[in-house]
Predict the 3D structure of the following.
Amino acid sequence: MPGRGEDPGAFTALEQALRAFGRSYRGRGQDDAGDVSGATRGRFVTFEGGEGAGKSTQISRLARRLTALGRDALLTREPGGSSGAEIVRHVLLSGAARAFGSDAEAMLFAAARIDHVDRLIRPALEAGRWVLCDRFADSTRVYQGTGGTDPGLIDALERIALEGLKPDLTLIIDLPVEIGLARAAVRRGAAETDRFEADHVEIHERRRQAFLAIAAAEPERCAVIDGTATPDAVEAAVWAAVRGRFPELASALGPPH
Ligand code: TYD
């Protein structure tokens, strides 16, 4: 672990992040706030998958389709999505928290998630909006879970951060690790890899299998989409899954295309 004087910038950011966590943690977990309910509740869709899966392209395309049908779609991402969470994002992706271990990183992802859920996701769902989120709690299960964090700690952090909130649909975009990493390298260009993308290929393979295990365990919530297909074909598969999960969209639709 670096000494305090070695990287003061990283420590300041980490300290800010931990203070944000402390503030948002207070009073949580005593009651389960429950999922946002009621007929006017919006719909919560998350996108998950390994590096270079094409999530950001597909999430934008889904937002466009929903908007064309008159739905109010909010596009967001994790870690980040709200101002407090963006500070934590920087700490995590720069690798500043890596030396503290996988459990500390899991706590920081949870800290970012609390801010994001409280300030953006829950209010948007209560206002009847569609929330499309690029990564969410399954990424903690997969990345920190395969990184050695105990499932019990992950469950506890999830209870605190989500307070009963659950995605209505999770689209897991699946593709072989080598293809995803090659795509991510092209997208990144000359920029450095982030802390998680830089991991060894075997670790990425474990993550892929962990996403598939979540999909197998929760088939009513998750749909696995073949990410090796063309962007148009992936978009069509995503749309088919969304229509299947939300029959109310059918009334706003012509024949499938
Ligand atoms: P990002 O630049 O958003 O990449 P991607 O396009 O792959 O989504 O980086 C987010 C990284 O953080 C990604 O490598 C996955 C990782 N991550 C976790 O390890 N745990 C989490 O809970 C979340 C949300 C992301």
Q: What stands out?
A: The CA atoms of residues 89 and 169 lie 24 Å apart.
